Amino acid sequence: MRVIKAANYEEVSRRAAMLIAAQVLIKPNAVLGLATGSSPIGTYQNLVAWHRAGDLDFSGVTSVNLDEYVGLDGTNDQSYRYFMNEHLFSHINIPMERTHVPNGLAADIAAEGAAYDAMIAALGGIDLQLLGIGNNGHVGFNEPADVFTEETHLVDLKEDTIEANARFFASRDEVPKRALTMGLGGIMRAKKILLIANGEAKARIIDKAVNGPVTPQIPASILQLHPDCTIIYSEC
Ligand code: F6R
Hints:
It is built from seven helices and ten strands. It has helices at residues 9-26, 41-52, 80-87, 109-122, 159-165, 184-188, 200-211, and strands at residues 2-5, 31-34, 62-65, 67-69, 99-100, 128-131, 153-156, 178-181, 192-198, 229-234. The chain has a seven-stranded parallel beta sheet with strand order 1-10-9-6-2-3-5, sandwiched between helices. A three-stranded antiparallel beta sheet has the order 4-8-7. The mean pLDDT is 97. Bound molecules: fructose -6-phosphate (F6R). Fructose -6-phosphate binds next to loops.
């Protein structure tokens, strides 16, 4: 595990974007695993800027996102599909049909999860998975639990996650209570993992995830077992 402490959010974002850009440069048909939330916004801004400058071509890239709220369709401005279009996909030349986000409206969520994992396997797996981390150590929406869940699955979001995500909604009541998330098996099968975070609370949970025991109570701690994981964080 490589743990890089950056000075601030801008540096985290620039360094993370450099690693993603390097992945795309060395493998133009890379499969990128992507995340939403506030952490990757700066990273995506850098990628968009480098694409606009003519330095980065996403025409061969395929993307798979980690998660989606249950019950929101892609035109809802709180959905993760909408977020990805707004912050990245609409500004680069990735073919939209090769951008994948779990379908939070699927009638059969279990079947959607299995199909999502099968689709990733058929793509040959994820070359580089970008992750954020929750204050409680969640990655994707794999919340603290008694066991690590392997496959893409339905989760009931924890109160602290709903609380943390309420900032993106008009009111706390509007935050969906369930999500579909790639499991920890899917994340761990990625060839490379890049986790980014900023702020004091995130620095504290990263310390526990990196230096504490591997436990499903801190889902990110499983990354200690990954052969090629980079964490870039800043305390502010
Ligand atoms: C988002 C995701 C979540 C976030 C995490 C941190 O796709 O999977 O695990 O990465 O909740 O969110 P921010 O970056 O908003 O603090």
